[in-house]
Design goal:
single chain, alpha+beta, disordered C terminus
């Protein structure tokens, strides 16, 4: 979807629209007795979670009608569908919105609410991608031409938060985490982290 109005007004409009669509289906109940919310959204990134196929279709139809009333529409090409039956991905079940078929995650992976989804439903590849991200980021920082103390600043305030996000949302094995930690320690030693830290500490003591 696209909208040129204020982000605050857009979020308020989306909240009202999603609330109006919640009555189209019941909560997605799990075997453990817990239930998941029907709709999860951030701005225009919306995720529908239903336990039955017919409820999912009713929800999509209801959302399509509400978006049309708001003079907006979903973009099927940017959307993805995933159907799971008895613990396995069901390729035969597809869904439509705006009278167009929504591609499945098997056809194209999708990033929803900060997390990538594909047909494997596993996080094995995400660990390797995070490790590769760390290597490429360190290479970029080393080639930026900054002094070592500023490289440490880039590590602390830019790279580490960027690495912590995938580590918090994906199930990444401990060996990959240890490899990332080893890269960080190696770069810190190469940039003279202890020397820079001691210099900052001495400067702070003199000022105090």
């Amino acid at each position: 979807m696209g909208c040129t109005i204020s982000p605050i007004l857009f979020v308020m409009a989306m909240e009202v629209t999603l609330k109006a669509a919640e009555g189209s289906a019941g909560p997605a109940n799990l075997d453990s007795g817990c239930s998941m919310p029907l709709l999860k959204a951030f701005m225009d990134d919306t995720t529908i979670i239903c336990s039955k196929e017919d409820e999912t279709r009713r929800m999509l139809t209801r959302l399509d009608d509400l978006m049309s009333w708001c003079r907006m529409e979903f973009k099927p090409k940017k959307s993805r569908s995933l159907s799971i039956r008895r613990g396995k991905v069901d390729e035969a079940t597809t869904f439509t919105v705006v009278e167009q078929q929504i591609p499945t995650v098997s056809q194209e992976s999708v990033k929803s609410l900060g997390r990538w989804y594909d047909s494997s439903m596993k996080d094995t590849r995400r660990g390797a991608e995070t490790l590769e991200l760390a290597s490429e980021s360190f290479l970029a920082i080393n080639n930026c031409g900054f002094q070592d103390k500023f490289k440490i600043w880039c590590l602390q305030f830019m790279l580490i938060p960027k690495l912590l996000w995938p580590l918090s949302v994906y199930d990444i094995c401990s060996s990959t985490v240890e490899a990332i930690e080893a890269k960080i320690n190696k770069q810190e030693n190469g940039w003279g982290f202890l020397r820079v830290f001691q210099t900052w500490q001495c400067t702070a003591e003199k000022q105090s």
